[in-house]
Amino acid sequence: MEKYSRWRDPGTGIHAFVPPVPLRGDRNGFQTFTSIAKSYILGPPLAFIKLTVAMILVVVFALLELVGQMLAPITLIQRAYTRLVNFVLLRSLLLLLGFYWIKSENVTVKKGARRSSSRTQPTRQSVQAGDIIATNHTSYLDVLYLGARYAPMFVTPTQTPGQVTVETIWSAFARSIRSPPLPETGLRLSDVVKTAKSNGCSVAVFPEGTTSNGRGILRMTKVFHGLEPDKVRVHVIGLKYEYEDFAPTFTVGNFIPHVFFLACQWINTLEVRYLISEEVQDLHTTLPANMTLNPDEGVMGTQIASLLNHATRLRQTSSLGVKEKLEFIAYYTERERKTRKSL
């Protein structure tokens, strides 16, 4: 791990980019045998079957998307059609990858505690057209989940504060795999929100701008710069992947082996944590006295970063962001190239 010490956050000691290693712990003989069978004996042929079916579903999804584009003149019908297609096919892809059940819960800023199921307790509000969904980003699977659950308009932060580029689900998925540099400019997020509202959909953004390994929250981009809190509704959602043998999180490396080994697993686990509505909507145009402004994130970004910390129960790094991730990818790729060359 020392070879990656340059990318250890000094404030928290977190390595946020290094691919996670299996959490072995103490295992008995049966558990060890099961792990070997899953990864090397029964898992590979099962993964081959799963991924073959997945490729068929991807082709079907692409064809049905073309049909959906023909419905563009009829907004209501197109929106209902898109949500149905996304839910059925993208959720099916997640099922094939072992996500049979996705656990969700409401959490609160107060120590990240779970909310009870009592009707008297505040709950999350449903996501409406024109709302912003802000989540942490650790895997290409995030795109599949959000696409299946909300069929949103995906956007990517740019280097210009308050501006984004609009993505298709295909390009959002590709960005989560490649982690390319952020675009220089785009459209104002406030204008994109208005467009999404007129189209009957929400806006999904990963404010970190790139993926982490799920051990901490990265430094936020200035994607929320210029937004007026009283004119937009934000939903803060934390995504967390539990694992023992193989981590669904993906920060760097080859996508194909990663998704293959992911498909080798019997079960994969995703936990979705929704911050309750009252605490998310209490955003301010100026920072509360108990918060310190991070100039790299802006006023609203600093507040949402704090809320993401509570939703995910993770600490935020102070020195790791998109720039450092690009440097890490370059170093990691070059190191892997030299390793292969020496073999």
Automatic annotation (TrEMBL):
Entry's transmembrane regions: 47-72, 84-102
An MF annotation (GO) of this entry:
acyltransferase activity
Alphabetically ordered keywords of this record: Acyltransferase, Lipid metabolism, Membrane, Transferase, Transmembrane, Transmembrane helix
Q: Provide an example Pfam family for this protein.
A: Acyltransferase
Give the GO biological process terms. Answer: lipid metabolic process
Keyword Lipid biosynthesis set for record: no
Q: Where in the cell is it found?
A: Membrane
The reply to whether Transmembrane figures as a keyword in the UniProt entry is yes
Q: Mind telling me what this protein is named? A: Phospholipid/glycerol acyltransferase domain-containing protein
Which family does the record claim for this protein? Belongs to the 1-acyl-sn-glycerol-3-phosphate acyltransferase family.
Phospholipid/glycerol acyltransferase domain sequence ranges: 131-242
PANTHER family in alphabetical order:
LYSOPHOSPHATIDIC ACID:OLEOYL-COA ACYLTRANSFERASE 1, PHOSPHOLIPID ACYLTRANSFERASE
Provide GO CC annotations from the record. Answer: membrane
Species this chain originates from: Synchytrium microbalum
